[in-house]
Design a protein that fits this description.
Elements: H1 5-9, H2 23-44, H3 49-52, H4 63-86, H5 97-100, H6 104-108, H7 112-130, H8 134-137, E1 140-143, E2 148-151, H9 152-176
Antiparallel strand pairs: 1-2
Amino acid sequence: MQIDIEKLKFPIGKFDKSTTITKDILIMWISDISTFPKRLSSEVLTLTDKQLNTQYRYDGWTIRQVVHHCADSHMNSLTRLKLALTEQQPTIKRYFEERWAELLDTKSMSIEPSLKIIEGIHERWTVLLNNLKDEQYARIFIHPEHGKTFRVDENIGVYAWHCNHHLAHITETKKRNKWN
């Protein structure tokens, strides 16, 4: 059986920014962000330590690292949103996610604390996202890693994709290993 490496790395494809971000698209993206904690928990809470320590692809992170990465990444995203809403074109601080994924807490700690972080972050994030004014969607931040500006509405899409992307890493790993 031939395994498509690109499909393992990007099981739902790469983020495709819509040329026009409509209110309906934003509602869908915010729903994806809002429901992520429950969808994630339902996929990982019954996994054994051995399963949590399984890489979703060769040279990829373990499921445990993916869960902790989501907590780390989404904390950063909420902070970036708040900076964009309260400062004029802030330059956000880059963090080295690949290095964070190698730290002891990410590699070996129980996933429950990160699931709690994700639940709290997403609850607060969703309140902000559901109450943005039209002009706030156009606010921007500067991302030094990518050398470009991001609009708040575009970043909502990036993180809706991010939720679904990493959830698919987990669900596809479970399917391949027949853990369902």
